Amino acid sequence: MTQRVFFFGFVLGLAQVLFTQRAHAQLRNAVQLQEVTVAGKRNTRYAAGARVQPVDSLLLQRQPGITLADVLQQRSPLYLKSYGNGMTATVAFRGTTASHTAVLWNGFNIALPTLGLTDFALLPPAANTQVSLQHGPSGALHGSGAVGGAVILENPASFKPHQLVRVQQEAGSFGHRRTAATGSFSNGRLTSVSSFTRTASDNNFKFKNTTAFGAPTERQQNAAFHQNSLAQELHFKLSQEQRLSVRGWYVKTHRQIQPSMGSANTHAEQEDENLRLMAEWQGQVARGTTTVRGAWFKDRLDYRDDGTFSLSTVNTYQSQIEHERQLLPTLLLQLGGEGQLFKANVGGYGGNVDERRFSAYGWLRYDLLPLLQLSLNVRQAWVQGFNPPPTPTLGANLQLLETDAHSLVFKANLSRSYRVPTLNDRFWRPGGNPNLQPESGWGYEEGLQHQYKSKKLTGTTEATAYLLNVKDWIQWQPSANGGYSEPVNLSRVNGHGLELDSRWQYRLTTDWILQGGAAYAHTISEQTLPNAQAKLQDRQLFYVPRHKLAGWLDLRYRGWWLTTDATFTSLRYSDNDNNNWLPSYTLVNAGAGRTFSWHAFEAQLMAQVHNVTNTVYQTMAYRAMPPRNIRISLSLQWAKHP
């Protein structure tokens, strides 16, 4: 059965939204954007005033099979919480938690309904995936869970005729090995994109056990893993006005669960199997563009150790319908609705659990003046057993300066968000609380975006200040009866901060190109708790660093390239009372490569050094992370463009 499902996922696969010439022609006077899919428009066209940042695609192109955890660690100011190399890894925006981050795959939320979060170590995106980050609340666009921000994964396709095959083999320290293969084809009416990766590691690195006297050096035990990922896209151009796409993404991961320092090795293991299938039709209807999508996800998580055996399977059925229409030359409207059905079979619930969710939304883009763009969005959700609040969003972009070399835009956004309690929050035994209230949040941000362009130098710099307030924040804590934990609604969590992002490219000559960037986040996220004298004090939420800085530099000369990146993460508290903490740390990576070309063939040899300075650090308390390690890879590519 598994083989048939695997084959079905390979054949059906991973589609993406298609280009529509007519829609682009209608909108080009109103919004200066490249022709994109309807699924992708919400992240830019209807998000005036919000900060939306694309992630450098070079990492995905050079390292097929790299997980989103590694990509976001190296190219964003988001804090990555990892239980070890290859273990569970989550990210969070603006001082929130992993469950406050929505992850969208071509328009569908792929967070686990049981946990309400996404393990980024289980997401090795295909090489043609475009990753973008939307900072701040975006409930009107993305629904439940988009309280701190959203990670958007899209797979744009091209109908330009071509043929391409690429294979790569990588090996490295601690038994690391990765095999990747990608193939794409298009004849102008049919496009197919296939990709496969297999990553494995023994993970038997040496580390300093800081819980033992003298911090002795030990070898990591029970931390090996292997992962297979298969993605397939098929796109059909039915006519100039109609597109049909099907897509699939299958990931199977087996991990030994790395024990924490000082704890006994219980030989814990976890197997995750994630199958995602979807289909989409897009066409011109009623003087607008209509898109219909349907998806089925199956997420299986099996855990066992010396004394525990737990099985979990969730089937998710989702559907969406959207209609976008140009009402006036400067007024664009999109109306839509979606439904979700969760069918969970989880041992910890004591039985099967079903849940239904529905929502309706409207998004409005109004170019009031040539220099002023406004967006007004609203969503209303209906969830079985809950009454989520309506989530409006109002945003604006105001052009302050426009010359041949400089552009300066003022941005402002006010938005509401919500998060429905997860299935585990309500049904886990013992501890689940069916009386929890949905979280409700407000966020405000404003910023400046500057763009510079000259013959040799181009760059973009954006600074954003924000405020965030979340009511009825859900947090698990020890129960009054003891012996287990339970979720409770905190009264309120407040946050504010500053974000800065700057990216530049300098073309010294036709052969020399220098690219670099930096991203910084200053984050204050606090809840009010009593101190030892029973006086209320604001405490920084645990595992929220006040400072996170990421920087990178890439130098290319003909077929040669050198790259380096560094991240700094400040002190993080590891408990609610702020009595214990993890020290700050800096990580540095470096790499070099050479590309050889001959007619339609291309070969690339690459060497990387991770954790160059051999830093001893932890992102989660007592979870060892790898020391300095190296990786070497060779890729071969054949491409034909008529």
From TrEMBL:
Chief location bin: membrane
Highest taxon of source: Bacteria
Gene Ontology terms: cellular component: cell outer membrane
Keyword Membrane: yes
Occurrences of domain TonB-dependent receptor plug (ranges): 50-150
GO molecular function: siderophore uptake transmembrane transporter activity
Topology relative to the membrane: Multi-pass membrane protein
Subcellular location field: Cell outer membrane
Keyword line: Cell outer membrane, Membrane, Receptor, Signal, TonB box, Transmembrane, Transmembrane beta strand, Transport
Residues covered by the TonB-dependent receptor-like beta-barrel domain: 186-611
Classification via InterPro entries: Beta-barrel_TonB, Beta-barrel_TonB_sf, Plug_dom, Plug_dom_sf, TonB-dep_rcpt-like
GO biological processes: siderophore transmembrane transport
PANTHER family, alphabetized: HEMOGLOBIN AND HEMOGLOBIN-HAPTOGLOBIN-BINDING PROTEIN 1-RELATED, TONB-DEPENDENT OUTER MEMBRANE RECEPTOR
Family according to the record: Belongs to the TonB-dependent receptor family.
Name of the featured protein: Iron complex outermembrane receptor protein
Species of provenance: Rufibacter quisquiliarum
